Structures are given as C-alpha cells and as structure tokens.
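request received
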Amino acid sequence: MAKLTKREENYSQWYNELVVKADLAENSDVRGCMVIKPYGYAIWEKMQAALDKMFKDTGHSNAYFPLFVPKSLFEAEEQNAEGFAKECAVVTHYRLKNDPKKKGKLIVDPDAKLEEELIVRPTSEAIIWKTYKNWIQSYRDLPILINQWANVVRWEMRTRLFLRTAEFLWQEGHTAHATKVEAIEETERMINVYSEFAEKFMALPVLKGLKTPAERFAGAIETYCIEALMQDGKALQAGTSHFLGQNFAKAFDVKFANKEGSQDYVWATSWGVSTRLIGALIMAHSDDFGLVLPPQLAPIHVVIVPIYKGEEQLAQISEIALNIKSSLEKQGLTVKFDNRDTHKPGFKFAEYEMKGVPVRIAIGPKDLENGSVEIARRDTLSKETKPMNEVVDYITELMVEIQESIFSKAKKFQESNTHEVDNFEDFKSKLNETGGFISAHWDGSPETEELIKKETKATIRCIPLNNPREEGVCVRSGKPSSQRVIFAKSY
Amino acid sequence: MAKLTKREENYSQWYNELVVKADLAENSDVRGCMVIKPYGYAIWEKMQAALDKMFKDTGHSNAYFPLFVPKSLFEAEEQNAEGFAKECAVVTHYRLKNDPKKKGKLIVDPDAKLEEELIVRPTSEAIIWKTYKNWIQSYRDLPILINQWANVVRWEMRTRLFLRTAEFLWQEGHTAHATKVEAIEETERMINVYSEFAEKFMALPVLKGLKTPAERFAGAIETYCIEALMQDGKALQAGTSHFLGQNFAKAFDVKFANKEGSQDYVWATSWGVSTRLIGALIMAHSDDFGLVLPPQLAPIHVVIVPIYKGEEQLAQISEIALNIKSSLEKQGLTVKFDNRDTHKPGFKFAEYEMKGVPVRIAIGPKDLENGSVEIARRDTLSKETKPMNEVVDYITELMVEIQESIFSKAKKFQESNTHEVDNFEDFKSKLNETGGFISAHWDGSPETEELIKKETKATIRCIPLNNPREEGVCVRSGKPSSQRVIFAKSY
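response:
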C-alpha cells in the first residue's frame, strides 16, 4: 500500500488520499456526489445509533417527509428560499422516451413536463411546516418533536468527500412549540446534545456559540453552532441548531389556539448534523500513517494478526486468537481475526493502521512459547507485550483509555491553538503562521466582519456561549467592543 | 374518534381511513409522495432493525450510493432502462433565480441547465455497477455483498399510501459474484431471508416462487418473490430477489480475472423490500376497529389506562401502573402509561385499538380493592382479569402467544383461500366470488398469460418453489401443462 502524503507536506492532499486509502468513500460518476463505502458507512451507522438514542432520550420521534419540495412551497419563506435557490437540483420532467434518432438512447419526454417544478430538498423546513399546519390546531397539539434521517442535495460547485458534497446524508430535527421560551430551550438543548456527542463519541472538543447574523442559517433568528479545530488550524462547523422564531409559521400560516383561547403563531426550531462529521473525525485525529478512530465510533475495535510459518503454527495461534476474540466480543467489542494467507503480517499491520483500528494484537511463535501476545495501540503507535490471560481485561480498559487519550490530545491541541490577539497585525500573523481559533475583539458590525473576511479569509466562527464580558477595541476598526469572538479560517 | 368504514362495506376505503386514523401516514403536498408519521415510521424502524440484522448475519454490509443516475448510465442496461424510463423524475437544472416579473417568486434559471440530465434513482443497479467496475479486478475482490437503505422515486400515476407511492423507502441489496452458482445461491438465500422475516416478524405467511418472464424485474434473468394474501382476497408482492446473470456486468463492462487467470463477466443479484411492507402488514391483520400489530413490530406493546375518580385514586393506580410498566420494560417490552386527564378511558380504549397496541391493561377502583387488573388482547378483543402479581409473567408469555396467534390466523386464511381449479369457468367464478390464490394449470406461454390477465385481471403471482409436477391442461388454452401456478388479482 503506497504511503500517504504527509500532513506537513500537503494537508489537503493527505486528507483526500486518506479518505480513499482507508476505504471510506470515493467520488462517483455523478458530479459532486460520493459513494460511501462499507467501512465509511459503518462509522456513519455508529454515529447514527448514538445520536438517535440521544434524540429519543430527549423526547423526539423519527418520521419521514418527501424528498421533493414544490417550488411554490420552497419560495414561501423568503430568506430561506433566497439562501438555497442558487444551489438546488430541479426536477422538471417525469418521463424519458426513446430517442427517435438513436436506437437504445433515451431523451427527456417534452410531453412530460411538470406543471410545477420540484426542488430536491436542500433542507426540509418548507415541506415540513406545510405539513405541520394540518397537525396543529391548539396548544394541546404542541410541542411537536420530530427528527428525520435523510439525504439532501445542495448544488455545491467545489466539493470534497464528506466535507462538502452535492448530496449528503444528515438528520434534521424540526420542532414546533407554543412559546418562544420553550423553542429557545429546545434550540439550546440540541446544541448541547451535539456538543456532548462530539466530545463523548467523536473525542472531539468543540466550542459552543452563536453565529453572527451574516453566518446564520437562512430563515433563522438565531443559529447556535459547535465549532471544532482541525489539525491544519482551520475550523469546521460540526453542527447547528436554529431558533427559527415564527418565520416559518408565518410563511405557512401555522397558528394555534393558546391556553387563553386566542390565536398565535407557532414557534420553531431546526437542527442538523451530517456525514460532514466523518470528515471532521478524520481530520481531527488522524496521522501520517492513516486514520485514528476513537473506539466509540470504530467499526472494528481490535484486529488480531497471526504471525506464523506453516499450518500447524497457524492452527495453534488460531485457537488462541479465536478464544480472545470471543472473550472480547462478550465485552461488547468488535473483533476481526485476519487469517488471510494472501497477505503478509507487515502488509496487514499497515492496512489496519490506515483504517484506524484502535488496537492490534499480534500473535507469533515466541508468543506461543511465552504465553504472551503483542498489543499495539493505533493512537500512540506504542506496543506492549502482555500475558495472554490478562489480555481481555487489559484491552477492555484500554478502550476507555484510548477514547480519553484521543480526546485530551485534541483538547490540548485546541487549547494551544486558541490565541488571544489585540491588534490586526497579530491577528493576521497568527492566522497565517499557526492558524487556529483567534479570540479577538470585534465591533459587532457586519461591515467590519465582511472587511476582515475579505482581507484575511477568516470568518467569525462563533460568539461563545456564556462569553465573558470584557471591554476592548475591535482589532480591525478600533471601535469599542464588549466581548471577544472567535475567528478562524474554516472548511 | 369517528368509526372506520367496515371492511365488508368497502375494503379499499377501510384501508385508506385506517392508515390516517391510526396515525401512520398521510398524503403530502407533493403528488404521490407521502409523509410517514412518527407512529408509522416507528414500525418501519422495527422492520429495518430486524432486516438489517438478518442482512449482516448473512455477511452483508451497508453502503451508500448517489441519489442521481446520469442518463447515459441509466440507459446502459437496455431492459432495465426500458422498464423504468416511463416513470422517473428527471433533474434538468441546478439553480433557481428571482423571477424578474414577480417579486419574491423564483423561476428555473435557464442558464443553469445540466449538460446531462440526472434521473432520480428508481433503483440503483446502474450507478452501483458503474461503481463496482472500479472495485473488481480479480476473483479475490469477490463476492461483494452490499446493501443500501435509501429512498427511490418511481413516477406512478395512481398512488396509495404505503402500497404505491412516487417516493418510497426501501433497502436494495446488490451483490457481485465470481460464479453463476454462487449468485443463484445468494438470490435464493435472500428470498429465504425475506420469507423468514415476513413470517417471524410480520406474522405474515407467504408463498415463495418465481415470477414468469412477463412479471420479472426489468433486466433480471430470474425474479424470486414472496407473495402474501390480503383479507380481500388480493395478493401483494412483498419482496423480490433477482438473479441478474451477467446483464449488468456486460452493460458496464465489469470483468474479473478468475482463478484460472482468464477474464470473465461478474455475476449479479439484487433484492429489495420497501415501505410497502407496512401496507401489507396493515391489510393482512387489521379489523374493523383498527390496526392489529404483531408484537414483534409493534412500537408500543402494552398500554396502561387508569380508570379513576379524583386525584387520590389516580395516585394509587399510578403507583401500581408504574411498577408494572417498569417490570415489563425489564422484559424488553415498550409500555405506555396513558394518564392524560383530557380524555376519558373509553376514548383511550378506542384510540389504542385503532393503533393496534397488542395488549391493554386497565386499572380501576375495583382492581385496587381486589389486587387485580384487566388485560385486553387487541387481536382477539378478549378480556381477562388477572391478579397483579401475575401480570408480568402473563403478559410476557402473552406476547409470544399473540404473535403466533396472528400468524396462524393469517395462515388459516391463506389456506382456506387457496383454490385449485381445473377449468376456466371455475377460475373466473372463484376469482370473482372469493378471490384468493387460484392454483391452476397454465400452458407456459406469455400469450395465454396475457389473455387471462385481460379477461380476468388476474396475473400469475408466482410459480411456487419446489412446485410438485402434475400433468394437466391449461385452464385457458387447454394445452398440456406440467405444473400448477398461482394466479390472483393483486395490489
């Protein structure tokens, strides 16, 4: 297996190669759309399972709404429509017919033109709020707490596997509430769920905060986000939770009779994370040898590789390996015994390093003599020899340690790459030399935000929640500011 | 809650009303597309979980392929293209723009026309085999055993909730093999998985068989199916597994080096079941009071309804109810305690009957005195009074009994509605009077099959697997026949 480009040489190329070599995904024949391969999809399934449980534990149910949004619904909430109109796939016809000029070829049947075009959903607020209108008459019908696992399409011009693709998989929560307070509580509850998921499962420390108006979701009153820092010093938005106010209720005329008997517009939230998280997971932890996966999301926790000469040795090793496998599986771990005779151990070692399997056990002739096995950690690349009878306990504990260790490494990285700067020269030099989160004063105006973006490519990633008040002056305009915000270049 | 139309009066209307009243699904604003509501989706999640485990236990992995199929790929396998071209959604543009004539309105941007149209997948053979081409070089790359959970779109003109919708959810397995024998084994393995799933989880007896050439999947060499009988005597195709031969490998030029070192085309299968199964589940078991759900797929197994006057009685009942709930949950059952004070017990009884909750426990003042509870079975509508301390064991066993009982009722129905007929008069009268599966001799010609379809609306549902040989004459043509096949009107 050819080696990866090193991160230091070309981080972007390292990422692109890694996604393919670790067998996670590849580009398809459809512009901007990816194929998620079984190993990559298995990570997504682990993410889905964990998130789905967290959603259900917070009172949500899953449902499913149509893939298509009729144009008239799509345009109902103007800001939202404006935000997505420029990048959407439009269905205009419902039939092909044989090309009279070329046998075996098909053409769009002009007689099968739709009366009204259908937009492939870039997000589902429009179709869902049109549906909620029929479900909501009184406060007794509220709250509605629904999530949907679905594919969405945004016609992005520049795409990268997982990070930005024309079609991607995600979940989108859409909730309806009787009061503003309740809706804001829900918005905050879900950003906390995302942050807990990122830290506990992805081992990814995140900053929680609010987006500036310029960076808000189209149609939102307030967008909460979690922002993670990648190893190249760029930020990645890992999840968003939107307080939509009454915008969609007004666009679709969704009113309810409140407890006092008068009519009021319903309050809304929406929140989502996507397969982009897999991109974040890869970029946050992996190294020049390949993927590093936290055990909580690893499709395979342990791989056992036999090192042997001849069938007899293999048989002896297999017996031990299968015993260890079955004991570890009883602890809830997924174990692969790779006894392929078509590949050498060294090849297998490199392959599982590339795929980020957290722990590798190697068993060879010396181990048979000594009653030991060699245990290698993927995250630290360290090896230890352990007596066979201690292996199961040791590895079970090791999984917890690896998970914590990957998190704390990422946390330290985040901390040492968060820089307070107080003037624009420092701002620019930090940004270009080390990157990272730049904590700086900003005057609060969209004009200054836009200027900084133009001049440095840095955007305001978020205004941290519970941000301490601090008097200062804006790094760009010199105008007064009462708090620091987080800038970064971003994915 | 208004009562359902009775099945005898109008079976079709009964079904339509039931789907809506049981809160399973509803029509959306998008022609032919449904909204699957949380209660309906919960049934789908149960189906998915069971099937997904069966797929993984038989060696399959999940992956994800693009929603769109470029037209040139779509038309590559001619039969398949022919079969789906007339009912597909076509994306022709990738952008909207503001309507210069009407403020706030959007129009399709003519400058954003795609060079090549994209078909919204009606099934994914084309895009998947184009992808497999790059994955397969030698026999060592085979078999590929992949499944995908996805949405697909077929532009059906007449749609009905779950049974036939323009967009539906399904899984599609796509496997690649080195030999014909292996591919046929896989095709048969998966029809057996479907049949086991239908019988064990859906409590739905099915006939396994082969489709005639006229009824085969477009592009298949052989289509295996499972056919179930609905209460109105019509058949419903509940799942299919296709042996695709080398058709797709040839269309996409997918060859591999076999063990002997020569190049050969890869052998293929595909197999799928969809949200249509929910329609089958509803129609097979439900009655004039509403849904009847087998416990294996019921989102809620037990509902507890308190019957009380005043807060004090409610408090006493609640304590008992919550104890029972927690004990049943320890047995893996899902239990709802409905203590809403906005609805009377009678209303709740009717609601849970409509929703098909398998067991209802009612606890009232007399029960408090006697230390008993009332247990009602949804499937038989029978009630029993049981001592409180026996409730948990009793209900745990009852779940198994209900599951079996629903199955054997359906099995008896299937048996008593399978009719051997030996002439065309009997054929027509059975078909019109009682419906059901008609077992009759057929001469094996597509012409006779077509004639019978035109004259009676009955189609050949399948040629049963392991069909006994029996000399006879075709009911329609009088020509010789060596086996009976199964005819029915169908959904």
